[in-house]
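User: Hi! I have a protein structure encoded as tokens and I'd like to know what sequence might fold into it. I'm fairly new to this, so please keep things simple.
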């Protein structure tokens, strides 16, 4: 049985969705960089950037733009992002910057604060933002070890998928277990022993 779909260019919409996230990421990064704000890209875009250093065909697209900021730099970051057209909102305990007046929370830059727990139940806080890695185009990401710790700390389904992506290109191996707490090491062992989920 075939189903009639609306007459839309689906491939063009797929490409545009990825481009919108990339544009939002680059705009936010440039605004922060130009204002002298310490920041690092985290989350799915950081995973994609690290994976791309090894195998661009293994990169998974993400709709989120997540940025790590020092809490002391938030006022300056807010001024820089608002000057670039982003609109600040605090929604359900999350600081975010909508990408324009008609944007939804999915079309936003989500902020995580350095050295603070993202959720009270997390065993580790977010990393410091002083150490970043530049991967070109002014894009600063958290170091790989810090990213792995963040993903193991939150350990949601998407985080496990991101960890599998990093494992799949050889960026995480059993050698990484040595620097982790018992809980995080157990979580990583679980994924290493069952990389297919």
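Assistant: Happy to help. Inverse folding works backwards from shape to sequence: for each of the 197 positions I chose a residue that suits the local structure. Here it is:
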């Amino acid at each position: 049985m075939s189903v009639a779909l609306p007459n839309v260019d689906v491939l063009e919409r797929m490409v545009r969705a990825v481009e919108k996230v990339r544009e939002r990421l680059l705009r936010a990064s440039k605004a922060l960089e130009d204002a002298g704000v310490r920041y690092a890209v985290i989350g799915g875009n950081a995973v994609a950037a690290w994976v791309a250093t090894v195998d661009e065909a293994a990169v998974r697209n993400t709709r989120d733009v997540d940025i790590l900021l020092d809490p002391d730099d938030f006022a300056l970051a807010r001024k820089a992002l608002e000057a670039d057209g982003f609109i600040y909102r605090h929604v359900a305990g999350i600081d975010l910057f909508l990408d324009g007046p008609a944007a939804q929370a999915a079309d936003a830059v989500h902020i995580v604060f350095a050295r603070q727990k993202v959720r009270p139940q997390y065993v580790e806080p977010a990393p410091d933002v002083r150490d970043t890695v530049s991967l070109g185009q002014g894009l600063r990401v958290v170091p790989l070890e810090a990213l792995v710790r963040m993903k193991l700390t939150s350990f949601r389904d998407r985080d496990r998928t991101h960890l599998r992506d990093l494992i799949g290109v050889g960026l995480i191996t059993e050698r990484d277990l040595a620097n982790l707490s018992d809980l995080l090491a157990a979580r990583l062992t679980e994924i290493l022993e069952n990389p297919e989920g």
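A useful reference point when you look it over: Residues 10-142 form a domain with the Beta Polymerase; domain 2 fold (CATH 3.30.460). Feel free to ask if any position seems puzzling.
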